[in-house]
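Hi all, long-time lurker, first post. I run a small reading group and we've been trying to get comfortable going from sequence to structure in the token notation. Rather than ask abstract questions, I figured I'd post a concrete chain and ask someone more experienced to write out its structure so we can walk through it together at our next meeting. Sequence below, copied exactly:
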Amino acid sequence: MHPFFRTRAAAVAALVMVAGCSVPGPEGAPGGIHDPYEAGNRKVHAFNRGIDRAVLRPVSHGYGKVATDDLQVAVGNVATNLATPGIMVNNLLQGDIPGFGKNLYRLVINTTLGIGGIFDPAAELGGVQLADADFGGTLAKWGFPEGAYLELPMMGPSTERDAAGKLVDFFTNPLSYTLPSPERHVGTVARVFDRVGDRERFGDTIDSVLYDSADSYAQSRLIYLQARRFELGGDAPSNYDDPYSSSVTDPSEDPYAE
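-- Answer (accepted) --
Happy to help. Here is the structure in token form:
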């Protein structure tokens, strides 16, 4: 199938998925959480937690020992640079022309002066930061509902809307169709290593949620939904509490306890 039609098919499938999203939960739900699939989500969470304990956490520790901080930053820069064309597609779909312009500038400068994106002179010298965007945010901009909370295998917390957005984002990066093989896979490899590096850098915080909290599923769900809603326009509940702020001293505290 031609790449254009694959992208359109993915977009149509995503819109159908979002159109069938569950209605939001009652106003009285804790933090505005709508989780009708909790039983299944908890099973996926247990699977993801097991993968983290057996694979991701030990691999990230090993990666942190052999990869210097500068190397990890370079890998993250490459991953971001190669993902930028797909982000720019969502900038346009959201009508964010200034964001599109910033990302175009970053792509040109970092690809040339930054030696293929290894360095980030656009931010370090020009102060131009990435205007991040994804198709989940595009759907939110278009007025589609958040839907129910989901935990995805290997990918972690999400919602019905964001899960549909991830499906489309998989097809929207133009580099996936223009770069020859194996060069087109460099971005995927860089993203994997960047995620491993993130697991090492934020290991203490992640461990406190996954292994020290009384209910790691509820804690992960709360953190994701609050952060995502704030990211999409400050739409977090009015009773927003950052689980990692100084006001929360016990990471094992259950946020849903009476």
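A couple of things your group might point at:
Strands lie at 149-152, 156-159.
Confidence is low (pLDDT under 50) at residues 25-30, 235-258.
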